[in-house]
Amino acid sequence: MALSQKLFFVLCLVGLVFSQDMPYEELIAQIQSCPQECSCPQNFPRAVYCDNRGLKSIPQIPPYTWYLYLQNNMIETLPLDALKNATQIRWVNLNRNKITDKGIEEGFLSAMTYLVHLYIDDNLLSSVPSPLPASLEHLRLSRNRISKIPGGVFVGLEKLNLLDLQGNKLMDDAVTEVSLKGLNNLVQINLAKNQLSRMPLGLPPTTTQLFLDGNNIENIPADYFKGLPKMAFLRLNHNKLGSGGVPKDVFNISSILDLQLSHNQLTEIPIIPSGLEHLYLDHNKITSVNGSNMCPVSIDSLDSSQNESVPRLRFLRLDGNEINPPIPRDVVMCFRLLRSIVI
C-alpha cells in the first residue's frame, strides 16, 4: 500500500473515532494546518501544543482549535491577527512568557468569543487586561506585577466565577467596589501574597472561596461577612491578625466549612460555628484551650452523638502555639466528630 493510501486510511480511522466531536473535513483541515513549531495530536485534534518551544511570537493556529497551549515561551506581544483563523478557542494557556500590558493589542482577547479559560500567570502585566470576552469563566493572572484593576474591567463578565490574582502588587486602594464591579457570579477569588492591609471591599455575595494568605491584614470588621452568605472556604494564613483585631464571633457564620488562620498573632480561639469542619490555628500565640468557651453549643446538651446540634469539626490544628498537652476533656466532649488534632 502506498504511503499516501496508508495516511488516508489512518486519517479515516481517526475521523471515525472523532466523528461525533469533529467532522471529518474539519479534522483533515486541522491536521494539515498544524504549525511546524507545534504539535497537534490526532487523538486530541482540537488541541494545539506550542509550549516549551522558545517561541517569540504566536504561529498561525489551525481554524478548529479549542485548546491552545503556549506556556513556557518568550512571547512578548499578542497581536490582533495572531488568532484570526482560530475563532473557536475555549482555552488558552500563556503562562510563563514575557507579556506586558502594551504587548496585548486591543481586541486580541475580546475577539475570542468562545473563550472560557484564560491563563496568563507568571508574565509582566501591571494591570488586569481589557477588554475581556463575555464568555470567560476562569481568569488566572497570578505572579505578575499587577497593581491596578481598572474600573469596569469586569462589567459584562456574567460567567466569570474564578479570579486568581495571587502574587501581585495590589494594595487596598486597588481592590474596591468600583474595581470589582461586574463580578456578579464570582465563586472563588485569590488575592494571596499581595500588599493588602485590610479585608478587600466589593466582593459579591456569591463569593464562596476567599484566599488572602500572605498579606498584612491586621483586623476584620465585625460585620464583614454579613454580605457574604455563601462563604465556605476562608484562608488568612500569614497575616498580622491579633485577637484584638478579630471580633470573637466574626467567623460565626453558618456557611463556613474551612477556616485557616495559621501564622498570625492570635492569643485566643475565636468562636467556632457548628458547621465548621476544618480549623487551622497553628503558629499563633494561643496559650490555653477551653472547651466551654470554644464549643458553639452547650456541652451538656450534647447527650447523644446522633444529636443534630453536634459541632461538625473534624480537623483541628494548634501546633506552634504555647499550649501544653493534653487537650482538655471538654474539647473532646464538644467536638465528637473530631478525627485529627495536631498540638
TrEMBL record:
<comment type="similarity">
    <text>Belongs to the small leucine-rich proteoglycan (SLRP) family. SLRP class II subfamily.</text>
</comment>
<dbReference type="InterPro" id="IPR003591">
    <property type="entry name" value="Leu-rich_rpt_typical-subtyp"/>
</dbReference>
<keyword id="KW-0433">Leucine-rich repeat</keyword>
<dbReference type="InterPro" id="IPR032675">
    <property type="entry name" value="LRR_dom_sf"/>
</dbReference>
<dbReference type="InterPro" id="IPR050333">
    <property type="entry name" value="SLRP"/>
</dbReference>
<dbReference type="Pfam" id="PF13855">
    <property type="entry name" value="LRR_8"/>
</dbReference>
<protein>
    <recommendedName>
        <fullName>Keratocan</fullName>
    </recommendedName>
</protein>
<keyword id="KW-0325">Glycoprotein</keyword>
<feature type="signal peptide">
    <location>
        <begin position="1"/>
        <end position="19"/>
    </location>
</feature>
<keyword id="KW-0964">Secreted</keyword>
<dbReference type="Pfam" id="PF01462">
    <property type="entry name" value="LRRNT"/>
</dbReference>
<dbReference type="InterPro" id="IPR001611">
    <property type="entry name" value="Leu-rich_rpt"/>
</dbReference>
<dbReference type="GO" id="GO:0005615">
    <property type="term" value="C:extracellular space"/>
</dbReference>
<keyword id="KW-0732">Signal</keyword>
<keyword id="KW-0677">Repeat</keyword>
<dbReference type="InterPro" id="IPR000372">
    <property type="entry name" value="LRRNT"/>
</dbReference>
<dbReference type="Pfam" id="PF13516">
    <property type="entry name" value="LRR_6"/>
</dbReference>
<feature type="domain" description="LRRNT">
    <location>
        <begin position="33"/>
        <end position="67"/>
    </location>
</feature>
<keyword id="KW-0272">Extracellular matrix</keyword>
<keyword id="KW-1015">Disulfide bond</keyword>
